[in-house]
Structure formats: structure tokens, C-alpha cells
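Example record for the data management plan.
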Amino acid sequence: MVPDVSRRTALSGLGTAVFGSCTVLADRVGSDVAPDERDAGTDWPMARYDAAGTGYNPDAVGPKRAARVKWRRRPERFSGGVASPVLLGDTLYAIGRGLVALDAATGATRFSREGPYRSSPARADAEAYETDTLAVTAPTGVYGLNAGGGIRLFDYEFGVERWHGSSREPSFDFFGSPSAVPPVTVGSTVYATVPGPAPDAARIVALDASSGRELWRRSSGDELRRLAFRDGTLFAVNWPFRVSAYDATTADRLWTRDLDEQMVLAPTATDDAVVVPHRTGVVALDSRDGSVRWRFRHDGNATEGAAAVADGRVFVASAGDDGSLFALDLATGDVLWSAPVLGERTPVVADGVVYVSASFSSELVALDAATGAVRWRFETGPASPPAVGDGVLYVVSHGRVVALEEGR
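Corresponding structural encoding:
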């Protein structure tokens, strides 16, 4: 298996022989742990942990009784954004106007790559390479990056950026900051959302993780959120009202359901249902036909965030002035407990603890998943949803990456 790194990153004046040597080396430099030697139990390979969006790794453990800083880093040329970091073995990857790879134990920088990347990365198998691909989205499309890093030659970087797929003209939101929806990955396939040429022509694309080759595309309305995948089905929501299910191999639409609420948020897929938060509540739809299983109304004003699902419970925030975090029974939608937690949040769960942080709030809160009792609070400033590893919690907070461990 010979790596063949994209020539887009090559200096045009270099000869073919020199470039070929550099690309082989670039795929091998910077990766201390081979993909098949990683401890998969402590990985957090994409935002919200898995392609289903559950936000739950049953093998991960975070600080439970209290939290203290293990390390705090402000990497060079790392700034902006609160995209969730991802953890692969002993390497933590974060996005902040580029990609930075840090030693998970110390926070030391292993490599970095400036670029237009905006979303959390998602790890994918790359059959043509010896190291994984990290898929990220940006205002200009979808990128595949080398998880092992690259090399520098004559002040140029080689081998970090493998491909750029489904490219388009850059766009900016009303407030001026580029935004992008994180992709999800399943094996060697990347599923991503890309705005189309017209405001109501957003697309779902499936890409090969080794080459960026487009496997299929599907137009799906406006304002797509993060996708969710389970058992060969891809679930998507878009403004207004709509939830849809697609065959992940063929892109055939399986069903569509219009909800009562225009503002629908990112879905979470479970064994037989898809959980969809919206502005004023949550609805669970049958994953086979889209029929309604249950509804829950919290009368909040949620415009961001997503639900986590763990051990038969749904965890979702209501936002608004009197915001709460709710734990609902996954089968019935009945309220098991609620706790006052302000802000629009995307919770994650590990070892019986729910962790919630928010991009417009100053603290990270840990709650008991069974009772809702607050275990600890920690001032972080506006922060990303956490990634959870082996006893350590990782967050990105506007130019900083912070690791929290068990405190006194």
C-alpha cells in the first residue's frame, strides 16, 4: 500500500521524483500510534462521539467528583471557534482557524496546519494510506486531512491536506464568522452537508475518505444540521419543519416527516427511533417510517444544541431565560428529572455523568446522569462540547485547549 498524497499541497516547482518521496514520508511522520494499535475504548473520534450522535462512549471516563486543570494550552496561530475536539489514542485534535494536533497527556503541539477548516474533525478509515483521514468542513467545502501530520520542506508543508471535495464558493453568516456543520464518518465513507448554489438547495454528500471522490449527492432543502447515521440509514433535518431518512448507500429517500415546529435541531439516532429536538421541545420518530412515538414540550427557546442518549435516557437542554437540562425516558418521553442549566447546550455522557458546556456560557457543569444532582461546576469561559477520554475531559475555549482531570 503506497500513500499518494494530493498534489494540491505540492510546490509547483518541485520535480515528480522529489514530490513522490515527500508524500510517502509525509504519511508516516507524526503518528506515534498506528490506527490498529489505538485503545479504541478511550477514543472520541468525532463531535458527539459517534455517527449516531449519541454523545456517549460507554468506555470513557471523565472527572466525577471535582475537576482541576491538567493542562491548558494556547497553541500558536490557534484562534476562534468552539468546535468540539476529538481524541484518537494519545493525540487530541482541535480546530481553530486550522488544525492542531496535541499530545493528550501534556498538551504539547505535535503538528499544526493553517487552513479554512471550521468544523470538528471526524476520523475515517483511509484505505489508501497508513494513517487515518480527518474529515472537516469549511465555507469552501469538505477537506480530508492526514491524522499523522506531514513534513516541512523549504518552509512549505506537505502531506497534511489530502483532498478537497464538493468545493464551492465561500460564504459567511450574518455576523461575519464562517460556519460549517461537522461531518460524520462510517468506515471509509464521509457524510457531510454542503450549502448549494441557491439558498434552499443544501446538499448531503457522501465522499470516499481516501480520495474525496463523491459517491453521491442529494439536495435536501435549506439549513441542514449535523447528520445522524445508524444501521445503514442517514437521518437529516432542515429548516423549516422537516426530518428525512435516506438509504446511506443509494441516497434514496425512505421517508419524510414535517413537524409542528419550524426550528428543528440536529437528530440523534437510536436502535429503533430518531430523537429530534426543536425550539420548544423534543420528538421521537420511528426510524422505519417516521411515525411519532412521543413528544415532549419544554416551552424553551432552543436554536442550537442536540440531545445525548445513554442507558435508556435522553438528555436535552431547553435554553431560554429559565433553561433546564432534562432527562427523559427514551421509550416514553416521560421526564425523569430536570436541573437548572442555562444556555444552548449539547450534552455528552460518560460513566454515569452528564457534562454540559455552552458557547455562550462561562461554565462547564457535571451532573449525575441518574438523579440530575450537580457534581461540580468549572469556569471555562464559552466552551465547546467536551471530548471524554481515560479520566480526562477536553474542551476548546476561544483560542485555548483545556484538559480537566479529577480534582480534590
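Summary line stored alongside the record: Residues 1-26, 28-40, 170-178 have pLDDT under 50 and may be disordered.
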